[in-house]
Amino acid sequence: MASFSGWVEVRPGFTPRPRISHVVLDFDGTLSWLRHGWPELMCEIFEPYLPASAIEPRREVRELLLDDILSLNGKPSIHQMIRCAEILRARGGRPPAPEALLHEYQRRLDLVIEERTAMIRSGRVPREHFVVCGARSFLENLLERGMTLVILSGTVEHRVKEEAALLDLKRYFGEHIYGGTADAAQSSKRAVMGRLLVGERITGEHLLAIGDGPVEIEVAKELGGLAVAVATDEENNGSGKADPHKYRQLVAAGADIVIPDFRDGATLLEHIMPGWQPAAGIGD
Predict the structure, then answer these.
(1) What is the pTM of this model?
(2) Which superfamily does CATH assign the domain made up of 9-33+131-272 to?
(3) Could you report the average pLDDT of every consecutive run of 10 residues in the chain (284 residues)?
(4) Torsional sign, CA 88, 94, 95, 96
Protein backbone atom coordinates (compact mmCIF):
# COMPACT_ATOMS: atom_id res chain seq x y z
CA MET A 1 0.00 0.00 0.00
CA ALA A 2 1.33 3.46 -0.93
CA SER A 3 2.58 5.80 1.78
CA PHE A 4 1.27 9.30 2.34
CA SER A 5 3.41 12.04 0.82
CA GLY A 6 2.45 14.61 3.46
CA TRP A 7 1.27 14.75 7.05
CA VAL A 8 -1.66 12.46 7.86
CA GLU A 9 -2.62 11.08 11.25
CA VAL A 10 -4.33 7.70 11.42
CA ARG A 11 -5.87 7.53 14.87
CA PRO A 12 -5.78 4.46 17.16
CA GLY A 13 -8.71 2.17 16.54
CA PHE A 14 -8.98 2.91 12.82
CA THR A 15 -10.00 -0.08 10.72
CA PRO A 16 -10.60 -0.16 6.96
CA ARG A 17 -14.16 0.00 5.64
CA PRO A 18 -14.33 -1.81 2.29
CA ARG A 19 -18.15 -1.61 2.11
CA ILE A 20 -18.45 2.18 2.07
CA SER A 21 -20.96 3.31 -0.57
CA HIS A 22 -22.01 6.82 0.57
CA VAL A 23 -19.71 9.76 1.33
CA VAL A 24 -21.07 12.79 3.18
CA LEU A 25 -18.89 15.91 2.97
CA ASP A 26 -19.11 19.23 4.73
CA PHE A 27 -18.78 22.21 2.39
CA ASP A 28 -17.07 25.27 3.88
CA GLY A 29 -13.50 24.49 4.89
CA THR A 30 -13.78 20.94 3.55
CA LEU A 31 -14.42 21.51 -0.16
CA SER A 32 -14.84 25.28 -0.48
CA TRP A 33 -12.28 27.87 0.61
CA LEU A 34 -14.57 30.81 -0.20
CA ARG A 35 -15.14 31.48 3.50
CA HIS A 36 -11.55 30.96 4.61
CA GLY A 37 -10.55 33.12 7.53
CA TRP A 38 -14.06 33.11 9.00
CA PRO A 39 -12.93 32.13 12.55
CA GLU A 40 -10.66 35.18 12.75
CA LEU A 41 -13.43 37.35 11.32
CA MET A 42 -15.77 36.07 14.00
CA CYS A 43 -13.20 36.86 16.67
CA GLU A 44 -12.98 40.42 15.35
CA ILE A 45 -16.72 40.79 16.00
CA PHE A 46 -16.34 39.81 19.65
CA GLU A 47 -13.06 41.41 20.70
CA PRO A 48 -14.28 45.04 20.94
CA TYR A 49 -16.68 43.94 23.69
CA LEU A 50 -13.92 42.56 25.92
CA PRO A 51 -13.48 45.18 28.66
CA ALA A 52 -10.07 46.67 29.35
CA SER A 53 -10.50 45.57 32.97
CA ALA A 54 -10.53 41.86 32.04
CA ILE A 55 -7.94 40.01 34.13
CA GLU A 56 -6.82 37.59 31.40
CA PRO A 57 -4.55 38.88 28.61
CA ARG A 58 -6.46 39.57 25.40
CA ARG A 59 -4.37 36.92 23.62
CA GLU A 60 -5.60 34.24 26.04
CA VAL A 61 -9.22 35.29 25.64
CA ARG A 62 -8.80 35.26 21.85
CA GLU A 63 -7.49 31.69 22.01
CA LEU A 64 -10.44 30.72 24.20
CA LEU A 65 -12.86 32.32 21.74
CA LEU A 66 -11.26 30.51 18.80
CA ASP A 67 -11.46 27.16 20.59
CA ASP A 68 -15.13 27.64 21.36
CA ILE A 69 -15.90 28.96 17.87
CA LEU A 70 -14.35 25.89 16.27
CA SER A 71 -15.91 23.49 18.79
CA LEU A 72 -19.27 24.58 17.33
CA ASN A 73 -18.13 24.48 13.71
CA GLY A 74 -20.82 22.71 11.69
CA LYS A 75 -23.73 24.17 13.62
CA PRO A 76 -25.62 27.34 12.61
CA SER A 77 -23.55 30.41 13.50
CA ILE A 78 -26.04 31.62 16.12
CA HIS A 79 -24.65 28.94 18.44
CA GLN A 80 -21.22 30.57 18.30
CA MET A 81 -22.74 33.99 18.94
CA ILE A 82 -24.53 32.73 22.03
CA ARG A 83 -21.45 30.95 23.42
CA CYS A 84 -18.98 33.77 22.81
CA ALA A 85 -21.38 36.37 24.24
CA GLU A 86 -21.44 34.23 27.40
CA ILE A 87 -17.63 34.23 27.52
CA LEU A 88 -17.51 38.02 27.20
CA ARG A 89 -20.19 38.61 29.83
CA ALA A 90 -18.34 36.33 32.26
CA ARG A 91 -15.38 38.72 31.94
CA GLY A 92 -17.39 41.87 32.50
CA GLY A 93 -18.16 42.64 28.86
CA ARG A 94 -21.53 43.89 27.63
CA PRO A 95 -21.95 42.47 24.12
CA PRO A 96 -25.13 43.01 22.10
CA ALA A 97 -27.72 40.27 21.75
CA PRO A 98 -26.49 37.19 19.86
CA GLU A 99 -28.83 38.02 16.97
CA ALA A 100 -27.19 41.44 16.56
CA LEU A 101 -23.74 39.88 16.64
CA LEU A 102 -24.82 37.36 14.02
CA HIS A 103 -26.16 40.12 11.77
CA GLU A 104 -22.87 42.02 11.92
CA TYR A 105 -20.81 38.87 11.36
CA GLN A 106 -22.92 37.86 8.36
CA ARG A 107 -22.70 41.38 6.92
CA ARG A 108 -18.90 41.35 7.04
CA LEU A 109 -18.64 37.77 5.80
CA ASP A 110 -20.96 38.53 2.88
CA LEU A 111 -18.69 41.39 1.82
CA VAL A 112 -15.71 39.02 1.79
CA ILE A 113 -17.62 36.39 -0.19
CA GLU A 114 -18.89 38.98 -2.69
CA GLU A 115 -15.35 40.16 -3.32
CA ARG A 116 -14.06 36.63 -3.84
CA THR A 117 -17.02 35.75 -6.05
CA ALA A 118 -16.33 38.80 -8.22
CA MET A 119 -12.69 37.75 -8.53
CA ILE A 120 -13.77 34.35 -9.87
CA ARG A 121 -16.44 35.64 -12.25
CA SER A 122 -14.13 38.30 -13.69
CA GLY A 123 -11.41 35.73 -14.31
CA ARG A 124 -8.93 37.57 -12.10
CA VAL A 125 -8.55 34.46 -9.94
CA PRO A 126 -9.26 30.88 -11.08
CA ARG A 127 -12.05 29.12 -9.20
CA GLU A 128 -9.57 26.41 -8.19
CA HIS A 129 -7.93 28.94 -5.87
CA PHE A 130 -11.05 28.62 -3.70
CA VAL A 131 -11.36 24.83 -3.87
CA VAL A 132 -9.55 23.06 -1.02
CA CYS A 133 -6.28 21.55 -2.20
CA GLY A 134 -6.82 18.19 -3.93
CA ALA A 135 -10.58 18.16 -3.34
CA ARG A 136 -11.64 17.99 -7.00
CA SER A 137 -9.49 15.00 -7.88
CA PHE A 138 -10.63 13.34 -4.65
CA LEU A 139 -14.28 13.75 -5.65
CA GLU A 140 -13.56 12.37 -9.11
CA ASN A 141 -11.81 9.38 -7.53
CA LEU A 142 -14.85 8.75 -5.35
CA LEU A 143 -17.19 8.87 -8.35
CA GLU A 144 -14.96 6.44 -10.23
CA ARG A 145 -15.48 4.05 -7.33
CA GLY A 146 -19.24 4.39 -7.69
CA MET A 147 -19.78 6.32 -4.48
CA THR A 148 -22.92 8.36 -3.81
CA LEU A 149 -21.70 11.84 -2.81
CA VAL A 150 -23.57 14.18 -0.48
CA ILE A 151 -22.86 17.75 0.63
CA LEU A 152 -24.16 18.43 4.15
CA SER A 153 -23.50 21.95 5.41
CA GLY A 154 -24.57 24.21 8.25
CA THR A 155 -24.59 27.16 5.84
CA VAL A 156 -27.97 28.27 4.47
CA GLU A 157 -28.95 25.78 1.77
CA HIS A 158 -29.46 28.15 -1.17
CA ARG A 159 -26.02 29.69 -0.52
CA VAL A 160 -24.38 26.27 -0.49
CA LYS A 161 -25.95 25.41 -3.84
CA GLU A 162 -24.97 28.75 -5.37
CA GLU A 163 -21.38 28.49 -4.19
CA ALA A 164 -21.07 24.84 -5.21
CA ALA A 165 -22.15 25.88 -8.71
CA LEU A 166 -19.73 28.81 -8.72
CA LEU A 167 -16.84 26.48 -7.89
CA ASP A 168 -18.05 23.85 -10.40
CA LEU A 169 -18.56 21.34 -7.57
CA LYS A 170 -22.33 20.95 -7.85
CA ARG A 171 -22.08 18.44 -10.69
CA TYR A 172 -20.50 15.83 -8.41
CA PHE A 173 -23.51 15.75 -6.08
CA GLY A 174 -26.65 16.05 -8.17
CA GLU A 175 -29.61 16.69 -5.86
CA HIS A 176 -27.69 15.61 -2.74
CA ILE A 177 -26.80 19.11 -1.49
CA TYR A 178 -28.23 19.99 1.89
CA GLY A 179 -27.80 23.06 4.06
CA GLY A 180 -29.51 24.95 6.83
CA THR A 181 -33.21 25.78 6.51
CA ALA A 182 -35.81 27.56 8.62
CA ASP A 183 -36.53 24.21 10.26
CA ALA A 184 -33.28 23.93 12.21
CA ALA A 185 -34.14 20.59 13.80
CA GLN A 186 -34.94 18.88 10.50
CA SER A 187 -31.92 20.37 8.69
CA SER A 188 -29.37 19.55 11.40
CA LYS A 189 -26.53 17.26 10.38
CA ARG A 190 -27.79 14.58 12.77
CA ALA A 191 -31.29 14.65 11.25
CA VAL A 192 -30.15 14.69 7.62
CA MET A 193 -27.58 11.92 8.07
CA GLY A 194 -30.14 9.79 9.86
CA ARG A 195 -32.65 10.27 7.04
CA LEU A 196 -29.96 9.45 4.49
CA LEU A 197 -29.30 6.06 6.05
CA VAL A 198 -33.02 5.26 6.13
CA GLY A 199 -33.76 6.61 2.66
CA GLU A 200 -30.80 4.89 1.02
CA ARG A 201 -31.34 1.70 3.02
CA ILE A 202 -27.80 1.54 4.31
CA THR A 203 -26.13 1.15 7.70
CA GLY A 204 -23.16 2.87 9.30
CA GLU A 205 -20.68 0.46 7.74
CA HIS A 206 -21.52 2.02 4.35
CA LEU A 207 -21.03 5.62 5.53
CA LEU A 208 -17.94 7.83 5.28
CA ALA A 209 -18.21 11.37 6.67
CA ILE A 210 -15.58 14.01 5.89
CA GLY A 211 -15.47 17.46 7.41
CA ASP A 212 -13.55 20.16 9.25
CA GLY A 213 -16.07 20.52 12.10
CA PRO A 214 -16.65 18.27 15.10
CA VAL A 215 -20.41 18.01 14.49
CA GLU A 216 -20.22 15.81 11.39
CA ILE A 217 -17.46 13.73 12.99
CA GLU A 218 -19.52 13.07 16.14
CA VAL A 219 -22.70 12.27 14.20
CA ALA A 220 -20.93 9.87 11.84
CA LYS A 221 -19.40 8.00 14.75
CA GLU A 222 -22.77 7.78 16.53
CA LEU A 223 -24.26 6.24 13.39
CA GLY A 224 -21.45 3.70 13.08
CA GLY A 225 -19.71 5.39 10.16
CA LEU A 226 -16.08 6.22 9.49
CA ALA A 227 -15.02 9.83 10.08
CA VAL A 228 -12.19 11.64 8.31
CA ALA A 229 -11.37 15.08 9.71
CA VAL A 230 -9.97 17.80 7.46
CA ALA A 231 -8.08 20.27 9.68
CA THR A 232 -7.72 22.78 6.86
CA ASP A 233 -5.43 25.77 7.12
CA GLU A 234 -7.67 28.86 7.08
CA GLU A 235 -4.87 31.15 5.88
CA ASN A 236 -2.94 29.16 3.27
CA ASN A 237 -4.80 26.73 1.01
CA GLY A 238 -2.48 23.82 0.29
CA SER A 239 0.04 24.49 3.06
CA GLY A 240 -0.20 20.83 4.10
CA LYS A 241 -0.38 21.94 7.74
CA ALA A 242 -3.23 21.20 10.14
CA ASP A 243 -4.85 24.10 11.95
CA PRO A 244 -4.03 23.43 15.64
CA HIS A 245 -7.40 24.61 16.95
CA LYS A 246 -9.30 22.45 14.47
CA TYR A 247 -7.01 19.50 15.14
CA ARG A 248 -7.77 19.50 18.87
CA GLN A 249 -11.51 19.75 18.34
CA LEU A 250 -11.64 17.09 15.61
CA VAL A 251 -9.58 14.55 17.55
CA ALA A 252 -11.76 15.13 20.61
CA ALA A 253 -14.83 14.49 18.44
CA GLY A 254 -13.53 11.01 17.60
CA ALA A 255 -12.02 11.34 14.12
CA ASP A 256 -10.58 8.11 12.72
CA ILE A 257 -8.14 9.91 10.42
CA VAL A 258 -6.99 13.55 10.34
CA ILE A 259 -5.72 15.18 7.14
CA PRO A 260 -4.74 18.79 6.34
CA ASP A 261 -6.28 18.67 2.82
CA PHE A 262 -6.77 16.16 -0.01
CA ARG A 263 -3.27 16.12 -1.50
CA ASP A 264 -3.08 12.42 -0.55
CA GLY A 265 -6.69 11.67 -1.46
CA ALA A 266 -5.98 8.59 -3.58
CA THR A 267 -3.73 7.08 -0.93
CA LEU A 268 -6.32 7.89 1.74
CA LEU A 269 -8.94 5.87 -0.14
CA GLU A 270 -6.52 2.97 -0.50
CA HIS A 271 -6.17 2.89 3.28
CA ILE A 272 -9.90 3.17 3.88
CA MET A 273 -11.01 0.74 1.16
CA PRO A 274 -8.08 -1.57 0.38
CA GLY A 275 -8.75 -3.87 -2.51
CA TRP A 276 -12.02 -2.02 -3.06
CA GLN A 277 -14.71 -3.58 -5.23
CA PRO A 278 -18.35 -2.48 -5.67
CA ALA A 279 -20.33 -3.82 -2.71
CA ALA A 280 -23.06 -6.20 -3.85
CA GLY A 281 -26.51 -5.94 -2.39
CA ILE A 282 -26.44 -2.37 -1.09
CA GLY A 283 -30.07 -1.25 -0.91
CA ASP A 284 -31.41 -4.59 -2.12
Answers:
(1) 0.90
(2) HAD superfamily/HAD-like (3.40.50.1000)
(3) 89 94 97 95 91 80 89 88 92 93 95 97 97 98 96 94 97 94 87 94 96 95 97 95 94 97 96 74 47
(4) positive
